[in-house]
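Researcher: Structure for this, please.
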Amino acid sequence: MDEQGTGHQVEREGASGADTTTGLPAVAPETLPGMYASAAPQGETADQPFRALEAQRAQRRRKRSIKIIATVVIVVVIAFAGALAIRAKLLSNAAAATTVSTGTVTRGDFDKEVSGTGKLNPVNSVTVTPEVTDGVVTSVSVAQGDTVSAGQVLFTMSSDTISKTMTTAQQGLDSANLALKQAQAGVSSAQSAVTQAESARQSAIDTYDGNLSTAQQQLAAAQAAGDAAAIAKAQESLASLGSLNTSSLDSAVDSATSGVTSAQNAVDTASLAQSQAKSSYDSAVAASDKLNVTASISGQITVLNVEVGTSLAALTTAGKTACQIADLSKMVMTLPVNEIDISTVATGQAAMVEVDAITGLTLNATVDKVAATTTSSSTSSATSSLNTTSVGVVTYDVNLLISNPDPRLKPGMSATATILFKHYTDVLQVPLTSLQGSTGDQHVTVQDADGTTHDVPVTVVTSDDLTAVVEGDLADGDTVTTPFATSSSTSLL
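Model: Predicted structure, token format:
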């Protein structure tokens, strides 16, 4: 029994101390009591030693895993702490970094100015709005961009309403003219009747007077002759004449005269009717003339939305303008100037205008008008020597008049204008960034040829975005430092 146990042990360990039958590492007998010293006790199975070995190995593996995880955690913590320290050092160095450059003191002229952007517009522009709202375009005589003169026909329309009105007015005038002519003929006829009545009465009077004169002459002759028979006959003839009764003749004259009055009244009535008909006709003609749409001013057609067949009613419904004419002989640019600088701007000041769309074009302009009241907060840009107008800044509109605009200019073009409101001659100038200190107590740092520096007090007269005009113990050509801090950030995460 012992020999078998000893031989089994030698066989399992082999020469290398490994289990030659299973390939598992050798295990000392003392780690498994009674496993190799004697046969397995009764009731135990043959694989129980291997299960114990596997359990021991699993326990060792768990311990090694715990050690590895702990080591990794420690390394990560140390690395993160180091990164934070490096980042803090970099930020500290960046915050403290300062770059110093130099500039030069110059002596010369300096212009104080305000500049900004805006749009070009004609001084005079009219919208052509036909008075005939139901017209339909029948012909167009111009095109967009054409130059037209005041009174020139732009386009022609037709209108059923005006056409009917014109026909009715013409017929009414013709009828009234005929009635007036007939009434005037009636007056002539009545006047002829008066003439005839008066002539008849005068003829009767003349005949009576002639007969009376003859009878009287005969009586006188008979009396002179002493012829009783002749006297009696003459007296009889004279008595037969009696007195002249002209009442009927007077009535005829009066009746004829009344006829003239009635005829004249008829003329007056017809004349009034004719005048009214003529007025209606003239109105119809005037309305018809409006079918020919003409230019109210001389200028250039900037908008034209009509063509043959266009309905003016439809155009109005669409909210479109039929035509627009701009007088481009003079143009204006509106420049918003902020409240800080507006007090320095006055009418008559010179300005220069540059048009964005036409490279190299510079136009002379003058300040024509300065608004007395503020406009709404500006969304345009206006930059002065010290200030920039932006959204939310109170501004005042300044109109710049361009008396001789370039023919290439178009309404609505963007432009940049500069108003010169003060000129300084032969003044010291330093870079704006070289100024140090606070307002009223400023200085610049002068760098000498050997690299040493010293501060020089200065008084700032004026400045723009880049340059300050100063008074102080400086000379043209002096070198001044222009320190400015630069910061950077580095992300390590």
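Researcher: Any notable elements?
Model: The two ends are 72 Å apart (CA to CA). DSSP finds six helices and 19 strands in the chain.
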